[in-house]
Amino acid sequence: MFFSSIFNVLDENNRSFSCCRIMSKNYLSKNDELRKGDFLISNNREWKAVFQEDGNFVIYGWKPFWASDTSGSDGMRVCMQEDCNLVMYNKSDQPKWHTNSSKPKSNMCRLRLTDDGKLVVSRESEELWNSDKNKGMK
């Protein structure tokens, strides 16, 4: 199952039209990324992890549950890297926040939003990081 976000695009004549971007439902795999406004949603649809316009990466249930505490930063994208480190980069490709979960020579890395509202970074079946045990930058 996929979710899309709608955004406006200008064509070659500067006319605006709506377009869709498809993203995975509850996970990012190696080299996948979220841009501002993109989100993951848990399989039970009770949790949403949003990369907000203010640069904060936040898990919501009925209220904010966890945050990267990067509000006001110049973060532009959150990337699941090949080395299993989830990193927020600014437009100059400088890291602003990361999970410190780097493991070289990884075949499969994934960030997943679970049905109990946790973000989990895993390599194969090994959990490397989760939001329940790790706070944001504060």
Explain this structure:
The structure is a single chain. The chain is mostly beta strands and 138 residues long. It has one domain (3-11, 26-130): Bulb-type lectin domain (Agglutinin, subunit A), CATH 2.90.10.10. It has no helices and 14 strands. The strands form four sheets. It has a four-stranded antiparallel β-sheet, with no helix packed on it. A four-stranded antiparallel β-sheet has the order 4-9-10-11, with no helix packed on it. Strands 5-6-7-8 form a four-stranded antiparallel β-sheet, with no helix packed on it. A hairpin with a 5-residue loop joins strand 9 and strand 10 (86-90). The chain is globular and about 35 Å long. Residues 25-134 form the Bulb-type lectin domain.
What is the assigned CATH homologous superfamily? Bulb-type lectin domain
The fold-level CATH name is Agglutinin, subunit A
Structural class: mainly beta
**Level-1 CATH class name:** Mainly Beta
Per DSSP, the total helix count is 0
Strand order of the largest sheet: 3-12-13-14
Radius of gyration: 15 Å
Order of helices and strands: EEEEEEEEEEEEEE
Keywords:
single chain, 138 residues, mainly beta, Agglutinin, subunit A, four-stranded antiparallel β-sheet, 14 strands, 0% helix, globular, disordered N terminus, Bulb-type_lectin_dom, Bulb-type_lectin_dom_sf, Bulb-type lectin domain-containing protein
In short:
The protein is mostly beta strands. It contains no helices and 14 strands. It has a four-stranded antiparallel sheet with strand order 3-12-13-14, with no helix packed on it.
